[in-house]
Amino acid sequence: MAERINIMGVPVDMVNYDEALARFRSFVEEEGVSLIVTPNSEIVVNAGKNEALMDAIKQAEMVIPDGIGLVYASKLLGHPLQERVTGIDFLGKALEYLAQTGKTAFLFGSKPGIAERAAEQMEKAYPGLKICGCRNGYFKEEEEEEILREINEAAPDLLCVALGSPKQELFVLKYKDRLKAKAAIGVGGSLDVWSGDLKRAPEFYRKHGLEWLYRFIQEPSRYKRMAALPLFMLKVIFSKKGPVTTED
Predict the structure, then answer these.
(1) Helix (H, G, I), strand (E, B) or coil at 19
(2) Which residues are registered as beta bridge partners of 186?
(3) Given the DSSP bridges, would you call strands 3-7 and 245-247 parallel, antiparallel or unpaired?
(4) Rounded to whole angstroms, how far apart are CA atoms 248 and 4?
(5) HSE on the CB side for 127, CA within 13 Å?
(6) Taking 80 as the threshold, does the pLDDT of residue 179 lie above it?
(7) What residue segments make up the domains of the chain, in order of their start?
(8) 3-state per-residue secondary structure call for 117-141
(9) Which of 12, 36, 16, 18 lies closest to 185 in space, CA to CA?
(10) Stretch among 56-65, 77-86, 225-234 having the lowest mean pLDDT
């Protein structure tokens, strides 16, 4: 298993894309559902204030460093991560593998119609991929059993949950022992990008870790959320605790 670094209490696997994909391939061949979490700076900050979210991350089978802030923090703490592994790019690699092996994915979350449009684009991008079900993210708590049955009837190899953090991680953890899926990943707004409803940052922004700036330009109303990155970096800089590494 991969070595982990502890960043402000959040365990993060020290993996690159190839290693993360190798672990994903093993997940879909095993019994039970493996939770994959993709934290960025905002999620790390929120986990420090949300015990349930922190618990979900700690119980995840793989935690990949989605945010550029985590890469910067790991260097400041003296135990640098190999590279940033963005959730949306990792998802693409996982879907490609599913297409090559005849395995399936279920898309759960986002606004009505988003998952269906995302599924259409995914199947075009990866011939052979089977999206075995779609369900939007608008539901009441009493509808969760119905959603669980719908997912379990499809029995996907990969369950993509786009409910936003922490709701997506907590949903998987709540039903982890009952879900008939091999792996489950919180994908945030990735389905909105795949559907074409949200434009992804151009390569320049992605290459330099500036997606947050591009999102701010697109959606200025997100300014409060954008404050998470500088707050996160300040907390890392002034933290008295160095990284704690463990072997899983």
Answers:
(1) helix
(2) 161
(3) antiparallel
(4) 7
(5) 0
(6) yes
(7) 27-237
(8) HHHHHHHHHCCCCEEEEEECCCCCH
(9) 36
(10) 225-234
Q: Between the CA of residue 82 and those of 57, 70, 106, what are the distances in Å?
A: 20, 11, 30
Place of tokens 């953890």: 173
Among residues 154, 155, 179, the alpha carbon closest in space to that of 168 is found at 179
Q: Which two tokens stand for residue 221?
A: 């109303």
User: Which residue type, as a one-letter code, is found at position 197?
Assistant: D
117 in Cβ contact with 195 (< 8 Å):
yes
The C-alpha atoms of residue 240 and residue 185 are separated, in whole angstroms, by 32
Distance CA 166, CA 70 (A): 18
Query: Is 198 a residue whose pLDDT tops 50?
Result: yes
Distance in angstroms (rounded) separating the CA atoms of residues 164 and 154: 22
Token pair belonging to 167: 């709701």
pTM, two decimals, is 0.89
**Closest among 44, 61, 52 to 185, alpha carbons compared:** 61
Q: Give the closest residue to 156 by CA, choosing from 103, 111, 214, 92.
A: 103
SS3 154: helix
Sign of CA dihedral 55, 58, 61, 66: positive
Quick check: 57 and 11 in contact, CB under 8 A? yes
Spatial separation of the C-alpha atoms in residues 61 and 184, rounded to whole Å? 10
| Residue of 2, 40, 7 lying closest to 21 (CA atoms) | 2
